[in-house]
Design a protein that fits this description.
heterodimer, A: mainly alpha, 434 Repressor (Amino-terminal Domain), B: 134 residues, alpha+beta, YaeB-like fold, six-stranded mixed β-sheet
Chain lengths: 176, 134
Amino acid sequence: MPLHSKQSLHDRLSDPAFRKAFISSRIGQTVAAQVRVLRQRREMSQKDLARHLGTSQSAVYRLENPRYDRHSVSTLKKIAEFFDVGLIVRFAAFSEIAAWALAMSDQAIDIPDFDRDTGFIERKPQESAGMMPRTGQPSLAEAQWRNDNLVGIRSGAQLLTQQSSPALVGYAGAQR
Amino acid sequence: MWVFLACPAPGGGRPLDRFVGELGPEAENELSAVLDILRALERKYWTRPTFDLLHGKKYRGMGEIRFYGDNKTYRILGFFGPNRLQFTLLLGTEKKRSLKHEMDEASKRRKFAEENQQLLYAFTFETIPARPAF
C-alpha cells in the first residue's frame, strides 16, 4: 500500500519547502540504500567495496549515509560500473519523481546487474488455455481466429520490446 | 511488499499520527522516503543506518526506524507482525541519550496491539491530521 495517494502528494508538493525536502530526501535515502543493498547482496563489507573502488572505508560509509549530500557523478559512475548497473543523472518533472516514489518496488532499490536483468527478455507468445476450446480439431474459422490472435500477440510482444528497450538502456531499475 | 500498521492508544487517539503530523518538512520527507524504501526491501536488508533491532529479551522482534530532519534525529519504535510482511509502528520520539522509557512504553503498546489486532490500521500519510503549510 503506497504511503501517499497521488492527489495528496500533489497537494503537499504545492509547497516549495516541501518540494525541496522531497527531492533532497529521495536522493539521499535512495542512493544510500541502493549502494548498501548492492554491497550487501554481494556479501561485501564496506572495506571490501572501498578496496575495489580504490577509496577508503569511511568514504563508503559516507555514501551509505542518507544525510550525505556531496555525491560526485564520477564516484556514482564508478560504483555503477563496479556493480554492473546503470545510472541515471538527469533533471525531471516532479510528477515523474512522485510517480516513481508511489510505485516503489523491490527492484527500485535492489537493482539487478546486467546478467540478472530480465528487462531484455522477450516473452514468447503462448496460447492461452482460456482462448479456445481444446477439444478436437479447430475449424477453419477457428484456426484463422487463432492465427490472427497469435499474430496480434506476437506484434504486441515486439511492440513492448521496442518500446521498453530504449528506456532500459539508460534507466535500469528506476522506471519499473 | 511490507505493510506498515499503526496502533491506536489504549484510551483512543492515534499517537503515531500525531507524532508524524508534528514533524517539519525535512523530517516528514525523510520518514516517507525511509518507509518507502523499507517496505520494498527483504527483511535481511533492514539494517543500519535506517533500521536497527532493539536488544534485550523484553524487546524481541522489535526494532527502530531511524531518520533525521530539521536538525533532529528521530526514532519510531515498532515490531514485526502481527502477521507476515507487517511491521507495526508503536511510538515515535526524538532521539535522546537513553530511550529506555520509550522502549518500555513501546513494549506495553505491542502487547496491547497483539491483543487488539482489530484496532490496528494501515499507516499512510493520508491519515495524518491536516496541517498548515510549512
